[in-house]
Write a sequence for this structure.
């Protein structure tokens, strides 16, 4: 048995440099060489600015502080996404963390569902600190909000991808990662199919025990080893994106907007330095020119929703868009890459890349990817919009794992447990309730709880949330204070 | 949303499974069902599981049972884990503790740092010294755990060693107070609905007919409803778990009342030693293919300590489970649903897991297949994971001193276990679950205890310097020792907290 002592990473975006930094920081015995390839337009994990809360833990694990990741990188905080027009119901916010609080007998959403039946419930997102704060335009982290002790929330970031990438690259280089020259001209394999060498345009050679492909959907090096993919196009109606980013002209907002329109959906998010806009649509229902016009951008990106059958084969592991192509709804792209990097660090095998160890990595990684996919599909599957695009999107076949969740929910409001789930049960409940999917039956456990008792606890929580949120400053003010502290 | 009309639930059998089910349903779903339990005093109860898992505490809490009263009534002692003796080699001993190794915080398991020191060439102390639960067990101490995760004495958990024949009556008094109805009688007939195949009623020897919407089969190995009546097949696992008999014999406690259970490997199986307040339970679990009953009985009698309180009694069983535990309107809970030998004290845990699933999936009168299928999926996962964990104890051995050990050492094992073994062997990795009876520290304790020593370790454990790690481990060990030495001894704790009635 020989440990892995060198890793080569193909790719030049956030994913590649994040992997380089994490490996150098957490497994310093491993030499890391990044072969910097240009970031292709369809590498969403490298280009998306709205990031899930797991990025905060990722930063903490590699020793980056908010002075680096927020102040210097020009990032803002984000608490969730407002979904507009996804069904015939009012807009709803999907924020991170708890909806409601621990109540007797059963899950909070069951208490809420009964109150709703009695006509006494406020909208579900009014019971989430994160959602209420996001809607108010304010921001404080949970440790500064006492109400978070009864109902916790989490925040992610709005990053400016080019600046953030530079920050991460500088950090990785500081940690001792090396950067090779030029593009990859050739991938040389050993007889057993393992990668032996990457040959660069200048004739240089990069050898390593393990190769990470973070080069985007075309998977420049991984495709030479094995490119077998699981196609998801039967599940997804969206196959095109137009992204239009511009410098920011307004106050940063902790709330993203995902707005459904007749042939797809558009997003808008505002960080301190830029406004990101985009449209996701189906080429069968909207042509690229119309889409570009719709959002005021240009250059359509084609998506083929899919994942590698096995993200890790022999000594080559694909992460980010090289492993999974999925539209940006709910912003899973960089999260899945971070999670793959963490898992890679935790499961680093020996140089022989033992198949059982790879099997375990692939099993966990695929389980996580598939549930993230299910969560994205959930938004379409439960939409009742009448337009042809939406009827197409909502009537597509569902993966059996999503069918299982939907059946358990529709029947009795139960959310079955899955290992490696990205989105917590409350996130599922927030979207299901937000889209108007109401279970047929009431949870029998609710029969032992007097109606008045639930109502009182729910109302107490809602008013605690309202007063807590009122005390938080606008996000712009919070960021300016952080910046003053950070540069002191 | 529909609020469903209450269901009439009929529970067949009044042992541990029956009364646990009755107590849970009457407490948690008082308006969603009425409970009617039928039992016969002519039929004895197996009284499985004198030793339990920590999960039982959650069950008791949910039911609002007072711990001290429960322990006094069932003459219980505290249990911090199981000590395995003679398993990998004759003379070996290790504890599978309820709790973590190290402080149980951080992303890298403590055993990885321990392995790293070992691979650095250090003479490290036995892993037990870095576990509060193991140290308490070794020193015979007990106090209740802290709920402040920063404190080292929050890193253990505990269960009970109790008289299972006293648990059912204790639960019965609670269930009856909450409205459970009990009828004494022997069932002589089961009426099925000609159209749906559902059970309509059970008929007693008195001629009384008890109808219901939902029938819970807690009739034990007899499996009156799920097996005898509905014919649901039994999936047998004896090729992996060949033990099919136990000789049980309680005795007076002579040596110490240990806060742990012992599982001592024998020539053709293993024997348990479970100290309660008033007596010590003993039993030899063995395989009839390798030893006959009389020899097993003689071997047990020869080694138990203290005066015997009863003659040896033989139990016969088969390892395995029903293909489905919920069929039509009949739900099997307890031994009617399956059996796994008591090596890791899982019998009551499996009852509890089934009850929890039933409550979470409590059906309507017209049962939705989504409730039934999900219940079966959840129960199957529990059985299958525990099965692998049990097989590990037998298979990972170096013993070759009897045909029994030769068989289990060389038998083919399920792929799901081969993968787990390979992952641990290479880098001490434990296949990760968040749910299930046994989580990472349990697998680590048993793998290492069975002499599966990883060749490598998690590379993240190389991050701290050797000296810093050695110092940290030394401090941890000292802190654990000090904290445990300040605890009362086990019997003293029981005498103050939960003494049985004289």
């Amino acid at each position: 048995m020989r440990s892995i002592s060198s890793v080569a990473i193909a790719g030049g975006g956030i994913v590649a440099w994040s992997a380089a930094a994490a490996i150098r920081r957490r497994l310093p015995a491993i030499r890391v060489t990044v072969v910097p390839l240009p970031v292709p337009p369809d590498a969403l994990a490298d280009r998306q600015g709205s990031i899930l809360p797991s990025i905060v833990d990722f930063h903490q694990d590699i020793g980056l502080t908010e002075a680096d990741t927020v102040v210097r990188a020009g990032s803002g905080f984000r608490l969730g996404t407002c979904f507009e027009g996804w069904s015939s119901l009012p807009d709803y916010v999907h924020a991170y963390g708890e909806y409601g609080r621990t109540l007797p007998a059963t899950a909070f959403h069951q208490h809420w569902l009964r109150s709703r039946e009695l006509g006494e419930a406020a909208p579900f997102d009014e019971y989430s600190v994160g959602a209420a704060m996001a809607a108010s335009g304010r921001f404080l982290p949970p440790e500064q909000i006492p109400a978070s002790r009864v109902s916790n929330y989490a925040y992610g970031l709005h990053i400016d991808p080019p600046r953030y990438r530079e920050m991460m690259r500088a950090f990785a280089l500081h940690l001792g990662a090396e950067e090779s020259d030029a593009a990859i001209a050739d991938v040389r394999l050993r007889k057993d199919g393992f990668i032996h060498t990457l040959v660069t345009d200048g004739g240089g050679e990069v050898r390593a025990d393990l190769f990470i492909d973070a080069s985007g959907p075309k998977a420049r090096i991984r495709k030479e080893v094995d490119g077998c993919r699981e196609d998801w196009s039967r599940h997804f109606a969206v196959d095109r994106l137009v992204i239009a980013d511009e410098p920011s002209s307004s106050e940063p907002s902790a709330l993203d907007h995902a707005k459904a329109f007749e042939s797809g959906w558009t997003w808008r998010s505002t960080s301190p330095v830029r406004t990101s806009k985009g449209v996701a649509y189906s080429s069968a229902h909207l042509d690229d020119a119309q889409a570009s016009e719709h959002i005021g951008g240009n250059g359509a990106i084609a998506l083929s929703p899919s994942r590698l059958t096995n993200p890790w084969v022999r000594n080559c592991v694909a992460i980010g868009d090289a492993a999974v192509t999925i539209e940006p709804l709910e912003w899973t792209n960089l999260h899945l890459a971070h999670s793959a990097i963490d898992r890679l660090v935790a499961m680093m095998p020996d140089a022989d890349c033992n198949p059982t160890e790879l099997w375990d990595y692939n099993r966990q990684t695929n389980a996580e990817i598939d549930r993230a996919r299910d969560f994205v599909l959930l938004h379409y599957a439960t939409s009742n919009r009448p337009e042809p695009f939406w009827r197409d999107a909502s009537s597509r076949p569902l993966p059996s794992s999503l069918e299982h969740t939907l059946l358990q929910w529709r029947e009795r409001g139960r959310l079955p447990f899955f290992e490696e789930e990205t989105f917590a049960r409350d996130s599922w409940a927030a979207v299901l309730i937000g889209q108007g999917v109401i279970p047929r039956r009431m949870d029998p456990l609710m029969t032992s709880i007097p109606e008045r008792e639930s109502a009182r606890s729910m109302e107490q929580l809602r008013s605690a949330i309202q007063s807590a949120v009122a005390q938080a400053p606008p996000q712009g003010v919070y960021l300016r204070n952080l910046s003053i502290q950070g540069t002191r | 949303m529909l609020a469903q009309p209450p269901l009439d639930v009929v529970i067949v059998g009044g042992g541990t499974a029956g009364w646990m089910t009755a107590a849970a349903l009457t407490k948690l779903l008082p308006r969603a069902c009425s409970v009617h339990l039928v039992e016969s005093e002519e039929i004895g109860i197996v009284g499985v599981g004198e030793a339990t898992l920590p999960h039982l505490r959650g069950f008791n809490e949910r039911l609002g049972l007072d711990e001290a009263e429960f322990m006094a009534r069932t003459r219980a002692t505290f249990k911090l884990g199981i000590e395995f003796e003679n398993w990998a080699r004759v003379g070996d001993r290790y504890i599978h503790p309820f709790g973590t190794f190290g402080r149980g915080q951080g992303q890298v398991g403590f055993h990885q740092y321990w392995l790293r020191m070992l691979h650095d060439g250090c003479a490290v102390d036995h892993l037990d010294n870095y576990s509060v639960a193991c140290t308490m067990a070794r020193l015979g101490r007990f106090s209740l755990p802290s709920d402040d995760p920063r404190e080292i004495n929050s890193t253990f958990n505990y269960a009970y060693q109790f008289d299972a024949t006293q648990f059912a009556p204790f639960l019965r008094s609670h269930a009856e107070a909450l409205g459970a109805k009990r009828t004494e009688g022997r069932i002589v007939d089961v009426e099925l609905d000609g159209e749906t195949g559902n059970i309509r009623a059970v008929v007693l020897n008195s001629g009384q007919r008890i109808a219901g919407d939902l029938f819970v089969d807690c009739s034990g190995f007899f499996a009156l409803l799920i097996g005898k009546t509905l014919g649901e097949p039994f999936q047998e696992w004896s090729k992996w778990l060949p033990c099919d008999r136990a000789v049980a014999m309680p005795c007076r406690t002579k040596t110490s009342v240990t806060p742990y259970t012992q599982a001592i490997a024998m020539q053709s199986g293993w024997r348990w030693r479970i100290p309660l307040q008033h007596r010590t339970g003993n039993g030899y679990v063995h395989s009839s293919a390798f030893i006959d009953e009389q020899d097993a009985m003689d071997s047990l009698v020869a080694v138990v300590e203290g005066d015997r309180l009863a003659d040896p009694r033989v139990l016969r069983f088969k390892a395995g489970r029903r293909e489905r535990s919920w069929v039509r309107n009949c739900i099997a809970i307890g031994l009617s649903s399956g059996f796994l030998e008591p090596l890791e004290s899982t019998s009551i845990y499996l009852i509890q897991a089934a009850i929890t699933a039933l409550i979470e999936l409590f059906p309507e009168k017209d049962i939705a297949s989504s409730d039934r299928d999900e219940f079966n999926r959840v129960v199957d996962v529990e059985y299958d994971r525990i099965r692998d964990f049990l097989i590990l104890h037998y298979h990972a051995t170096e013993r070759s001193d009897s045909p029994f050990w030769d068989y289990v050492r060389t038998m083919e094992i399920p792929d799901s276990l081969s993968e787990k073994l390979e992952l641990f062997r290479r880098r001490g990795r434990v296949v990760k679950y968040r749910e299930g009876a046994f989580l990472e520290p349990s697998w680590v304790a048993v793998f290492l205890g069975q002499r599966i020593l990883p060749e490598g370790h998690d590379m993240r454990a190389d991050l701290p310097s050797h000296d810093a790690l050695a110092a940290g481990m030394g401090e941890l060990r000292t802190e654990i020792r000090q904290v445990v030495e300040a605890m009362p001894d086990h019997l003293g704790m029981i005498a103050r907290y939960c003494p049985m009635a004289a």
Summary: The longest strand of chain B covers residues 33-39.
